Amino acid sequence: MDKIQKLAIGSIFVGAIVFVLKYAAYHLTGSIALYSDALESIINVVTAVAAFLAVRLSAQPADANHPYGHHKVEYFSAVLEGVLIIVAALAILREAYFGFLSPKALDATAAGLTVNGLATAINSVWAWVLIRQGRLRRSPALAADGRHLLTDVVTSVGVLGGLLLVPLTGWHWLDPALASVVALNIVWSGWGLMKESIGGLMDEALPEATLTRVRDVIAGNAEGAIEAHDLRTRHAGRMTFIDFHLVVPGHMSVTDAHDICDRLERALKNEVEDSLITIHVEPDVKAKHAGIVVL
């Protein structure tokens, strides 16, 4: 079991602990806003399980039916997480609506907020771990889970701050109002996750800054060739696919052309981790005099 799978399992346990704490906070206070926080924690546990299954399957080696590997399955996990987040938000809005109709005083506010604050602190630490490791290990599922938890942290802090005002002001309507704000923020977060994941499923190109580095690497390591054109890139989970046409002198031997390709592949893999490079070699009569000029 690799580090990514271990982190995904850790998310399940952390999510379960945070849910128990947040539900206890809701039970102590009867707050709709804290109920919304606890409900989102249930979603955290479900999506953590989905993320674990996704990273486990994505680690499977390529086979006859999936010659490019199983890396894209992580995007399905992130899309599922976005859908579940939106479902949770709708449930929270329902409770907030009834809270507006019948606002009520909160009980044991200090104890409930303290317990919720502890859960929020645990979530914030784990969110930082997941985002950092997700980016470091190029795992969309882990990174999405971390960003979701970070959103949970931000909304939890807002809820805690708002609920501190309820006993001071006597504004009992503030509780369902905070729950509504939490729900809307969750919807925005869910949509962001789905949009990013759908982009991965649609084979979006690398960011422009990364593309610039790829072009520079090709230009600086293709000595002996003439030019490179028709550069195409895409992400698939942790893998980055790069392919382009490389124009070489027509009299160049296959061996020499192959040596240039090997040199380019090594340089590109050093620049872009977990990359799969495909190079189509062409004679100089195919030159387009456009694209990447070899330095």
TrEMBL record:
One of its GO terms (biological process) is intracellular zinc ion homeostasis. Keywords: Cell membrane, Membrane, Transmembrane, Transmembrane helix, Transport. Residues 206-283 form the Cation efflux protein cytoplasmic domain. InterPro entries: Cation_efflux (IPR002524), Cation_efflux_CTD (IPR027470), Cation_efflux_CTD_sf (IPR036837), Cation_efflux_TM (IPR058533), Cation_efflux_TMD_sf (IPR027469), CDF_Transporter (IPR050291). The chain crosses the membrane at residues 7-26, 32-55, 75-93, 105-129, 149-171, 177-194. Gene3D superfamilies: Cation efflux protein transmembrane domain (1.20.1510.10), Cation efflux protein, cytoplasmic domain (3.30.70.1350). It comes from the Bacteria. GO terms for molecular function: cadmium ion transmembrane transporter activity; ferrous iron transmembrane transporter activity; zinc efflux antiporter activity. Residues 11-202 form the Cation efflux protein transmembrane domain. GO terms for cellular component: plasma membrane. It is found in: Cell membrane. It is a multi-pass membrane protein. Its main location: membrane. The keyword Nucleotidyltransferase does not apply. Belongs to the cation diffusion facilitator (CDF) transporter (TC 2.A.4) family. This is Protein p34. It comes from Microvirga aerophila. The lineage of its organism: Bacteria, Pseudomonadati, Pseudomonadota, Alphaproteobacteria, Hyphomicrobiales.
